[in-house]
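Wed. Picked up where I left off yesterday with RNA pseudouridine synthase. The coffee machine is broken again, so keeping this brief.
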Amino acid sequence: MNRPNLWSEQNEILFEDNHLLILNKPAGMLVQGDATGDEPLSAKAAEYLRFKYKKPGAAFIGVAHRLDRPVSGVVAMAKTSKALSRLNEMFRDNTVHKTYWALVGKRPEQEKGHLVHWLVKDPIRNVTKAYSSAHPQGLKAELDYELLGQAGNRYLIQVNPITGRPHQIRVQLATGLGTPIVGDVKYGFLAPLPDVSIALHARRLELQHPVTKEPMTFEAPVPDMAHWEAARELFS
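Structure written out below (tokens, as returned):
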């Protein structure tokens, strides 16, 4: 069996055991398949498992949560149905602690704070609108943010979402702070990045192992891209 054309395991497989596969998703890749027909991360993961364990048929891989296509960072997948069921429950109950890094174009007025909005998604345009007060069709969204420092001519913000809504961080930073994420033209940034990604990275995921119950923390290095270089230097 020839090795399939997969990612570099050293960079993108952050952790693996009998139940979990934790990956560092590249920006621009889907987590699950959609109408585009592009190969998603889940299919690459299943092929990796099929090759590694010499499975004659398809390998089981379960997706417990998603990142937007232009976003990079930690994604947790399940290798067993038991792990998937328990991961789904943890994400649904918001017992997973998520940390994101975002680069924005201007300094937020307050260096740290808590944002609350009601989000309404337009599925036709794939755009979410944030309202500052309760909306009859809106889902309540909350996050905490903190300015970590200036990174070149950008500003690095750490975000800890309390809820998990579609496009939540993107629209809340743009609407609540007036600081669209670098490259995110959908939510008000002036120009796209050359690779059409956005400067939002799922930096860290903290959860209880779905089977052993051990507390675990997974951290993804930021992408090796020019727009992240100054952010890396902040912590070198």
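Quick read: Helices lie at 9-12, 41-52, 81-92, 168-176, 229-234.
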